[in-house]
Design brief:
The chain has 208 residues and is of the alpha+beta class. The chain has one domain (11-207). The protein is built from four helices and twelve strands, in the order E-E-H-H-E-E-E-E-E-H-H-E-E-E-E-E. Strand 3 (69-73) and strand 4 form a beta hairpin. It is globular and about 50 Å long. Residues 1-11 have low confidence and may be disordered.
């Protein structure tokens, strides 16, 4: 179900991805750009660490600098803004072990989700994001996780959230959401000795 159709062109070489382990920044005194003051003021050390790790991952591959703004824009997703203009699209995701960041050109919406490979998605949880037709299909554990992650990544790329998950569908060629087609790229990565999957959603800009 999740294999990319060979006839679809999605500018996959245009994005960059970077992973970091939380442990690498647990005692880090250097602060990357684009930190959110509200999250940094949180009373949760775990939330702060995850936030810092994600921003470090983003700073490694983006052209961000002090004064830039990271903003989730409805219908556009994660945006890096400088002088009032979007200069890169981006997305960040975390697990309890590390973080991942993805960047793409300003005209390419992108979303990412990171999960441990052994995460289990119950049928009840899956039914919350599946439409009626999808609920009639049977899925193994890996398919459940990839479906969940794919819908999550696309919803993040759109800057809308999982409230639209039942409207994100797979038509046999590609994923479809909000009138556009999306390719899904999965990456296997070991973070802090734990196997993870990162799923990246990219809007398809050309179809042959």
């Amino acid at each position: 179900m999740l294999q990319r159709a060979s006839k679809l062109v999605s500018n996959e070489k245009s994005f960059k991805i970077h992973f970091v382990e939380h442990s690498a920044h647990s005692e880090d005194t250097t602060k990357p750009p684009l930190l959110d003051p509200k999250i940094m003021a949180s009373k949760s050390p775990k939330r702060i660490l995850h936030h810092i790790s994600g921003r470090h991952a983003l700073s490694k591959i983006s052209q961000s600098r002090d004064g830039d703004i990271f903003q989730i824009v409805p219908d556009l997703g994660g945006c890096l803004i400088r002088d009032g203009r979007i200069f890169q699209r981006c997305s960040i995701s975390h697990s309890d072990h590390g973080a991942v960041a993805v960047i793409a050109p300003p005209d390419m919406p992108v979303g990412v989700d990171l999960e441990p490979r052994n995460r289990k998605v119950s049928q009840g949880a899956l039914n919350l994001i599946l439409n009626e037709e999808e609920q009639n299909d049977a899925y193994d554990e890996r398919s459940r996780l990839l479906i969940w992650m794919s819908k999550e990544a696309i919803s993040k790329a759109l800057g809308i959230g999982m409230s639209i998950s039942k409207d994100i569908t797979y038509d046999g060629k590609s994923w479809v959401a909000m009138g556009s087609r999306w390719s899904i790229n999965s990456h296997d990565i070991e973070i802090s000795d734990v196997d993870h999957i990162a799923v990246i959603a990219l809007r398809i800009t050309e179809e042959t």
